[in-house]
Batch of 3 targets.
Target 1
Amino acid sequence: MTTTTTTSTTIETRREQWRAWREQRTAELSRPHGWLSLTGLHWLTGGPETVADLPGTWASVDGGVELTASTADGVVLDGAPVDGTVRVDTVEGAPGVLVELGDRRVEVMQRSGLHALRVRDPQAPARAAFTGVPVFDFDERYVLDAEFVPYAQSREVVVGAVVEGLRHHHDAVGTVRFDLDGPQELVVFADGKALFTDATSGVTTTGTTRSVPVPTDPGPVVLDLNLAQNLPCAFTDHATCPLPPAENRLTVAVAAGEKDPR
């Protein structure tokens, strides 16, 4: 493997940062209502309808969802029991509004103009069985000298999703260029991350997409591919993760970061 490895920060410091990242990831994924707690994703079709294992009725309306329930159903929204019909406003692509149902949370969300209910349960089998994400050992060869090249203006990039028919809209702010068995380039989004696949995808890493943080200061930067991490869809079938832009489908292997957890 031919790489250009940084010397601006000691490798041992990078290794310590990687260990701290691993601990943070484990804690984040272990949260009671985190991604490992998902047990269902239900798409609403229009008028009031019942949903398996959920009380009340749910209706997709313009800009949100109407929930009808009685006090006996034990549904809580914004700290108050629901008794009658309430409206839950949604924002396209944003994290959903959480409706409480005992220990469970029902996330009311909107994707590509469609409304859905995503159930989060602390007793989910995936959360109970979780012992950590499998990961490649830290490899200094994947700590790379790179260059971030900003766009003069941000550009909208529309990508597909793991759920057929959905689309995700992102603002791209530039590209990061680096050498890994030859010159490579990734489109970087406004959140400072690049979504990508590579030659390990579907083999030792998830077949959908991984994400890596990219410094967005113009000019020389350090790209640490050891920090490549899975999106939620690697852990659950109830996520709606974006796929990477076509430009970010690398043909080289990135045997660094998180592996396929399933």
Note: The chain has a mean pLDDT of 96.
Target 2
Amino acid sequence: MNILACDIGGTRIKLGLCNTAGDITEYQEYATNAIRGGVQLIERVMELMSVYSKYEAIAVSTAGQVHPVDGSIRYANPNIPNYTGVQVKSILEERFHKPVMVENDVNAAALGEAWVGAGHSFNDFICLTFGTGIGGAIVIERKIYKGFKGSAGEFGHMLMHPVIRSTDTMWDSMYENLASTTALVKKAQEIDSHITSGKDFFAKIDVGGAALETLLHSWVCEVSRGIATLIHIFNPPAVIVGGGIMEQEWLVSRISDCTRELLLDSFKHTEIIPARLGNKAGLIGAASLFLFHQDHVKKNVAKK
């Protein structure tokens, strides 16, 4: 069985065929051009999908909160304008006449890691991805825990410090405003205006002097506070951290050491480990919905 898997992100669209072993073939990657808006984005996705053949189903991993029943976008942040409300599942089913499943990108990545990645040996774990923001997923008995309305795992919106409201919908003290890659880069630009990405930051950390090292220490502490909070709540055997910035094993080790200092003794056995599947985790996890998780919408998830 081949599944056409698609990962829709704020900056990139990824496509490939996934087989029953979790292997991705015919992989392609394209710019999202998200500024054009959600409807045009899905039109672009369908255009890119049309070159594929010999598949039995379509699996979509996408940015935004996904309705667990109808596969529509319940909420998307302004990175993809007018994406909220787009009926992704029904649009694709009508166009391609194939069964379609749609899942949030971080949930899909967690399912991929559970299948053939860093979570393979764990029944339960927490997954965090660090990038533009911070995404989260809760895996219990190798399934995504959805919560009351299907939106559990918005760890990036945890309030970490004395609450200061900056706009009607945003809080300065949100976890992702303190510990995302974006947060690190924003602070780094106050030291060196040429740093525009996490990659730039870590390329300069060894030669950037005490200021960059002090910033890194502060950022690691922010990351660790959030992880420690989640460990104290869920008591998982593992926390898997992903995103391009976490591909550096020394950084994950440093975060693990810092987190462990914040934990009660009975919680110190939780492993903090890097994700293994990189930018294909969402594709693999979305495909796994058809292979293992067709009952992934739990009965206790409230419908509209």
Note: The chain has two domains: 3-108+280-292, 121-276.
Target 3
Amino acid sequence: MKESFDKNQNLHNLQVLTEKVSIVIPFYNCKYVDRAITSALAQSYKNIEVIVVDDGSTIYVDKITPFLKDIIYLKKNNGGTATALNEGIKRASGDYFVWLSSDDELHPSKVALQLDFIKKNKAMISYTNFIWINSLNRHISSPINTNLDKISFYRSLKSGCPINGSTIMIKLDLFQDVGLFDESLIYAHDYDLWIRIVLKYEIPFLDQPLTYYRVHRKMGTRKHLPEIENEVLTIQNRYGQKLDELIAKVEGGL
């Protein structure tokens, strides 16, 4: 019996390893980009490609130089994070897409554990828990997210963005159905995409803190809060009725 289990487990591991994961790192003048790249290359799951999309950076580009032989480096004119992500997605040759912000880091087993989770759940997308780190790389929080039931998650999505972009894994085929990031949204492009996805697919949650989200003085969510709030309001007006219909459908057991 044990020999049969071991064979099945080995077959499962072999099947998982055939899946290639593309880790896309959008980069713009971020001094932590070398740490992000290091964490991506250090994944225990080895069938990966790391794509760094330089969105017109003028400083800290030298931090990428030591990694050039191990990554795919794309340079473009500055257009915003959504444009950089879309450029990386278009260049990706993997089966799955992982977004890593250039000031964040991944747990060494993030890709392995999330890929196994997403396949076991037969999902097109999933997200994980995460913890905060500071500029010195010290952990400064407990896991941030809570495991919500489906209706609570949908309500949370209606009021704000409960998904940290650096925690997601998406099957690349999904973009053919729902489209890429909306490049007209400079700051809340992630929120817009998650809603478009949830209107068609479930987004299971892996309750393990597999992303380290860096909190620092120059982070975008602090520098551009009024602009972010305006875009969030635009998105809520765009999708509010559809989310209400989805919530009502789930509450009705349909």
Note: Strands lie at 21-27, 48-55, 72-76, 96-99, 105-106, 125-133, 169-171, 205-214.
